[in-house]
Amino acid sequence: xxxxxxxxxxxxxxxxxxxxxxxxxxxxxxxxxxxxxxxxxxxxxxxxxxxxxxxxxxxxxxxxxxxxxxxxxxxxxxxxxxxxxxxxxxxxxxxxxxxxxxxxxxxxxxxxxxxxxxxxxxxxxxxxxxxxxxx
Length: 135
Prior knowledge:
Shape: globular
Distance between the termini: 74 Å
Strand content: 5-15%
Radius of gyration: 22 Å
Helix content: 40-55%
Order of helices and strands: HHHHHEEH
Largest sheet: 2 strands, antiparallel
Strand order of the largest sheet: 1-2
Number of domains: 1
Number of strands: 2
């Protein structure tokens, strides 16, 4: 025997609710096709609220870092990196097999010459290194 009111509850509640995907999380993003999957919001890691809250905070920090990097450093030679989607930016800029080398009190980045976006990455690193530190 069914409980009273259960049938009415299913009749008045919609079967499925569809949400629009999160587009640009920060104003620095050029395109509106950045889906939650591209930004790390595709799956929350746990059923615990506190863990998901920490995951969401980390995703938002990463999205802000990407947006600020695009706005401040992806200009000039590196403009090709500013125009790509978050997934492509991760592949082209963050997954490069590079080495940070110190010599003569200077830091240099060594990127394989065969990497197609090597000049753009060098331009981004130089612009970030040229930002003055606050006093």
